[in-house]
Design brief:
3 strands; mainly alpha; single chain; three-stranded antiparallel β-sheet; 573 residues
């Protein structure tokens, strides 16, 4: 991966052969581990091999892709073909929220969970139509670069950096939290130690080569995560219905789920209240909130800086537009499968409950995840049989649906174990979840570090700084931001989907209006853009923090806006 023009050209031409070889090697590695499992190698060793091998491969790609050229560090030399940029964007997008949390949300919310699928997928339509090609045409290095040039000056750039750091930091905490969750389960490590162990892998992928290293690492990570996501549910579909296409068979799984629901109610193993959210739509969210959530997620998707900066890396505007189409395709493969994943996982859980499983005979997977606080029975962590029996004393002697609480972040990770698949499949899913978290964390950390080094240090503090100094500053900042994010993640601030939702909200409120109007409306001016960014971001932050920590109501928010808006509007009238 030499930085010379000729070497770079040869590398691009050989991408197909290189990644085909990589894919074949990865499949051979899975088969090897399956053989090792059959000959009696302990599961813990298999887990270390799965996680360790994949992280080493990503790190090697990152090290080989190291660069000292600003263009390659910030925008991968603007030489990434649309197909591979689409794959890298898919990996960048397939965060832990998508890989780990999406199916779990559908498991919990049923039909209403589809709002997340529709919103996140629809956001890419906005990116393709409104933003990506025009940002590439502008030729910027970062999203704040666009704001500075379009709205004349560094104040708009500074506001964009504030929004970028706020939403990206929240998002990267969720990814590092996911790496800790996966590593603590499959490497049998303390959660806090696992968080910092995952951080090492993230830094090795992004610190030396910037966007160039992150791009080629993310292509490799996408291959791992999509194989890991599809294989378990393909196996379940083939096993239960004889067709290895879960996207076509999960309707039959839902029919069986409906039958099991009635059976569990009849046997007293479930109540209608527990099952209510899964029977029909608009029970968790009313129609207004359902479609409002879709709209907000669409706008948030189209505003995420780490996604938008991916379209700075293509050779031409046409390639940028094409890479959005490829991004949609690669994202579609996972999102089209997520409802099936939720359905097959729920079918396995309901089957376990319906057969009248005694509390003394619970399967091992309940205790495995109960020990790390992700499964509760009768309101207590399912640490072991004794703790479950004590928690349910006087309530039940058999496992009931209303007594079983499974964290949404554990559905995908635990499905292979719930279904009784070989451990190698569970290890593969862990490697896929880790790939999803690492790929997104790489992109987010790079977006933050680039904003601080390029937009703050170079553009606002030291315009004459040489390239070498700029890259050193970026790498140092990337390291410290990563450590800070790991510390926050180690405190387990919230579930993954909640943290990601904050990131989307902040990006949408602070960036989207000024960004789209700046592209499409010539009369959009600095005063309006700045005011919109300040009010949008401040309102969103006030509401998010207030509703979570201070019980702020919508009425109080409206009252606050009523006092803030007139003064601002009068000033700019």
């Amino acid at each position: 991966m030499t930085t010379s023009t000729g070497g770079s050209s040869d590398f691009i031409k050989n991408l197909g052969r290189m990644y085909a070889t990589y894919t074949g090697g990865f499949l051979a590695f899975i088969i090897l581990l399956a053989i090792l499992e059959q000959v009696g190698v302990p599961n813990r060793i298999l887990g270390y091999l799965f996680v360790g091998f994949t992280i080493i491969v990503y790190a090697v790609i990152g090290i080989i892709s190291r660069t000292s050229q600003a263009g390659e560090y910030y925008v991968a030399g603007r030489s990434v073909p649309s197909f591979y940029n689409g794959m890298a964007t898919g990996a960048d997008w397939m965060s832990a929220a998508s890989f780990v949390g999406m199916a779990g949300t559908l498991f919990l919310l049923g039909y209403d969970g589809l709002a997340f699928v529709l919103g996140w997928t629809g956001g890419y339509v906005l990116v393709a139509v409104l933003i990506a090609p025009f940002l590439r045409k502008f030729g910027a290095y970062t999203v704040p670069d666009f704001f500075s040039e379009r709205y004349g000056g560094n104040f708009a750039r500074f506001l964009a950096v504030i929004v970028l750091i706020s939403c990206s930091f929240t998002y990267v905490v969720a990814q590092i939290y996911a790496t800790g969750l996966i590593a603590s389960r499959f490497l049998d490590m303390d959660f806090t130690i696992a968080v910092y162990a995952g951080l090492v892998g993230i830094l090795l992928c992004s610190m030396l080569g910037g966007m160039k290293a992150v791009t080629w690492t993310q292509v490799a990570q996408y291959i791992v995560l999509i194989v890991a996501y599809l294989l378990p549910v393909v196996i379940l579909s083939a096993k239960k219905f004889g067709i290895p296409l879960p996207q076509l068979t999960y309707g039959q799984a839902i029919e069986q789920i409906t039958q099991l629901e009635q059976s569990m109610i009849t046997k007293g193993l479930a109540d209608a209240k527990t099952l209510k959210p899964h029977i029909k739509p608009f029970l968790t969210y009313d129609p207004l909130n359902f479609f409002a959530l879709i709209f907000c997620l669409m706008v948030g998707t189209a505003s995420l800086p780490h996604i938008l900066m991916r379209y700075f890396t293509t050779p031409t505007i046409r390639e940028a537009r094409g890479s959005v189409a490829w991004s949609l395709f690669f994202i579609f493969l996972l999102y089209f499968t997520a409802p099936a994943y939720a359905a097959f996982s729920k079918l396995e859980v309901y089957t376990l409950i319906d057969k009248g499983t005694n509390l003394t005979d619970l399967p091992q997977w309940i205790y495995t995840y109960g020990k790390i606080g992700l499964i509760q029975v009768c309101g207590k962590n399912a640490v072991d049989a004794a703790s479950v029996i004590a928690a349910c004393a006087g309530k039940a002697t058999q496992l009931r649906l209303q007594d079983l609480a499974i964290n949404t972040d554990v559905i995908v990770l635990s499905t292979p174990e719930i279904a009784g698949m070989p451990y190698v499949i569970a290890g593969l899913v862990a490697a896929g979840g880790l790939a999803a978290a690492l790929s997104t964390a790489d992109g987010l950390l790079l977006a933050i570090a680039n904003a601080l080094s390029h937009d703050i240090y170079y553009k606002m503090i030291s315009p004459n700084a040489p390239t070498k100094t700029r890259l050193i500053v970026s790498r140092i900042l990337l390291f410290f931001v990563a450590v800070a994010a790991a510390y926050v993640a180690s405190t387990k601030p919230a579930d993954i989907l909640s943290m990601v939702a904050w990131a989307f909200s902040l990006a949408a409120a602070g960036i989207f209006p000024a960004l789209v109007l700046g592209v499409w409306w010539k009369r959009a001016n600095t005063s309006g853009a700045v005011l919109g960014m300040i009010l949008g971001f401040a309102t969103c932050a006030y509401y998010l923090v207030g509703t979570r920590y201070f019980a702020v109501s919508f009425h109080e928010l409206w009252s606050w806006l009523g006092t803030a808006s007139p003064a601002a509007l009068k000033k700019y009238a």
